[in-house]
Design a protein that fits this description.
With about 290 residues, this protein is α+β, with helices and mostly antiparallel strands. It folds into two domains: about 80 residues, Phosphorylase Kinase, domain 1 (2-Layer Sandwich); about 180 residues, Transferase(Phosphotransferase), domain 1. Helix content is about 35%, strand content about 20%. The chain has ten helices and ten strands. The strands form three sheets. It has a five-stranded antiparallel beta sheet. Strands 6-8-9 form a three-stranded antiparallel beta sheet. The protein has a two-stranded antiparallel ribbon with strand order 7-10. A hairpin with a 3-residue loop joins strand 1 and strand 2. The longest helix is centred in the middle third of the chain and has 20 residues. The chain is globular, with a radius of gyration of 19 Å. The C terminus is likely disordered. Bound molecules: adenosine-5'-triphosphate and magnesium ion. Adenosine-5'-triphosphate binds next to strand 1, strand 3, strand 5 and strand 6.
C-alpha cells in the first residue's frame, strides 16, 4: 500500500457486483493508479449499522488483519481498507468470473472432460492453503461460495483468447491466526470436519478435510455427506459414510485422493504437500497457472 490514507474520493465507482450480509460490492477504479491489479478493484462497502446489529466488529477486524497480510496468487488480495462515519470499505482484488459456486451449479459437476480443471483447482487450493497454514492461518470456511475466479486474457499477434482464470480463496471471516488448537464450531455443515462437528479441538487439518469435500463436490456435483436433515449430515460426517456413486464415472485415483483426505483422525489426513504429489494431481495440474484445458 503506497498511500497512507484512503477515502471514497480516490475511486470511481462502477457497476454493482453483488450484495452480502453486511453490505454491497462494486467494481471500482482507483483514480491514482497505485495498485498492480490493473487499477480495477472490487470495493466492498460494509455498513457500520449492520456490523453493530450483528455484533461483528471483531470478526471484521480479524478478517481484515488476516487477509491484509496474505499475498499469494490463489488468495484474494485485500489491498487496503478505510472507513467513514457510516461505512467500512475494503479494497479487494477483482475476480471477474465471480463465484466458483455459480460455475459449479451451472455445470452441475465438472465432467470427466474437465477433470484437468478440477485437478488445477485442487492443486491451487492445496498450494494456497499450504501458504496460509505456513503463516498459521486456518481458513475454516472453504466452500465453493468463498472461492472466486478471475479471468485471464491471452493476447497474441492475431487474436486474443479469454480463458478461465485462477482460483482465489476469499472470505476470511471465519479464519483464525493461531499456533494452538481451537474449539469454536464454525463453517457450513456440509464442509465441517468431524472434530468440528464434535466441537473438539481442531487445527489446520480441518482445511485438508474440506479440500476432500470440495474435490468430491467438484466431481459429483454434491458434497459427500449431504442429507435433507442436518442431523443426518452430522451423523454421516462422524461415521465418514463416504460413498462413490457409479455415475458419473470417476477415476480410481481421484477417489483415492478423496479417501485420503476424508479421514476421521485429523493427523492421518494427507498433507497439503502430499496432495500436490498425488498421482491424480501430478497428471497435469499447474497450481501457478490458469485453470483451462
Ligand atoms: P456474506 O455476507 O455471507 O459473506 P457474500 O459472500 O455473498 O455473503 P459478499 O462477500 O459481500 O457477500 O459478496 C457479495 C457478492 O459480490 C458475491 O456474489 C460475491 O461473489 C461478489 N464478490 C465479492 N467480492 C468480490 C471480488 N473481489 N470480485 C468479484 N466479485 C466479488
Ligand atoms: Mg462473502
Amino acid at each position: 500500500m503506497a498511500k497512507e490514507e484512503w477515502s471514497i474520493a480516490d475511486f470511481e465507482i462502477g457497476k454493482f457486483i453483488g450484495e452480502g450480509k453486511f453490505g454491497k460490492v462494486y467494481l471500482a477504479r482507483e483514480k491514482q493508479v497505485l495498485f498492480r491489479s490493473g487499477y480495477v478493484v472490487a470495493l466492498k462497502v460494509i455498513f457500520k449499522a449492520k456490523l453493530e446489529k450483528y455484533r461483528s466488529h471483531s470478526h471484521l477486524r480479524r478478517e481484515i488483519e488476516i487477509q491484509h497480510n496474505l499475498n499469494h496468487s490463489n488468495v484474494l488480495r485485500l489491498f487496503a481498507w478505510f472507513h467513514d462515519e457510516t461505512r467500512v470499505f475494503l479494497v479487494l482484488e477483482y475476480a471477474a468470473r465471480g463465484e466458483l459456486y455459480k460455475v459449479l451449479k451451472s455445470l452441475h459437476h465438472f465432467s470427466e472432460k474437465r477433470t484437468a480443471t478440477v485437478r488445477n483447482y485442487v492443486a491451487s487450493l492445496a498450494g494456497a492453503l499450504a501458504y496460509c497454514h505456513g503463516k498459521h492461518v486456518i481458513h475454516r470456511d472453504i466452500k465453493p461460495e468463498n472461492l472466486l475466479l478471475d479471468i485471464e486474457v491471452h493476447i497474441s499477434l492475431f487474436n486474443y483468447l479469454i480463458v478461465e482464470g485462477r482460483l482465489k480463496i476469499a472470505d476470511f471471516g471465519w479464519a483464525v491466526q493461531s499456533n494452538s488448537k481451537r474449539n469454536t464450531m464454525c463453517g457450513t455443515i456440509d464442509y465441517l470436519a468431524p472434530e468440528m462437528v464434535e466441537k473438539k479441538e481442531h487445527d489446520h487439518a480441518v482445511d485438508n478435510w474440506t479440500l476432500g469435500i470440495l474435490c468430491y463436490e467438484f466431481l459429483y456435483g454434491v458434497p459427500p455427506f449431504e442429507a435433507e436433515d442436518e442431523y443426518v449430515t452430522f451423523r454421516r460426517i462422524m461415521k465418514v459414510d463416504l460413498k462413490f456413486p457409479s455415475e458419473p464415472h470417476i477415476s480410481a485415483e481421484a477417489k483415492d485422493l478423496i479417501s485420503k483426505l476424508l479421514v476421521k483422525d485429523s493427523s492421518k489426513r494427507l498433507s497439503l504437500h502430499k496432495i500436490l504429489m498425488h498421482p491424480w494431481i501430478v497428471q497435469n495440474a499447474d497450481p501457478s497457472g490458469s485453470c483451462f484445458e
